[in-house]
Amino acid sequence: MVFAFPTVPRTLNGIMAFLKSETRPESAAPASRLGLADFYLLLLRVVASVPLVYYQVVEQTKLAWAFLWEQKEWPLVAQIGDLGLTQPSILAAVLVSSLLAGAVGVFCGFLTRINAAICLVATAFLFLTGLPFSEWMTSQTYVLFLGLMLVLVISGAGQFSFDGVFAALRRRKKELRRQAAL
Question: Which pTM does this prediction carry?
Answer without folding.
Answer: 0.74
